[in-house]
User: What shape does this take?
Amino acid sequence: MSIATEFKDFIAKGNVMDMAVGIIIGAAFTAIVTSLVKDLINPIISLFMGGIDFGSMFVNLTDESYATLAAAQEAGAATFNYGMFINAIIQFLIIAFVVFMLVKGVNKIKDANAKKEEEAAPAAPAADIALLTEIRDALKK
Assistant: This one.
C-alpha cells in the first residue's frame, strides 16, 4: 500500500474530521475565553484589588525605568511579564473547567445511552429454558 493511499484512508476516517472540527472550534473558544478574562474577569478582580490590572504587571530587567509595560515594550526593553502569565493561568483554568464540564456531560449521555441499550437488549434465556426448547423442537420432528 502506498503512502498516498494510506494517507487517503487516514483522512477518510471520521476521527480526523472530528479532530479538525474540534481544533477549529477550540481556536474560536480560546478567543472567547481570552476576551472573557481580559474584558470581564480582570476588571472585576481589579475592582476588588484596588485597581490592579494583571496585564500591565511587569518587572523591568533593564536599568531604565518605564511607567507602563507598553512603554517598555515599545522601547524594546527586556521585561518579565508576570501579569500576562497570571492572565494565561486564569484563561487555562476557565478552559479546563469548561472542558471538564463538557466531558462530564458527554460521559453522562454515553452512560444513559449504554444503559438504555442494555435494557433494550433481549435477555438470553436461562440454560434450562434453552434445553427445554431444544427438547420440544426435537419432539416436533
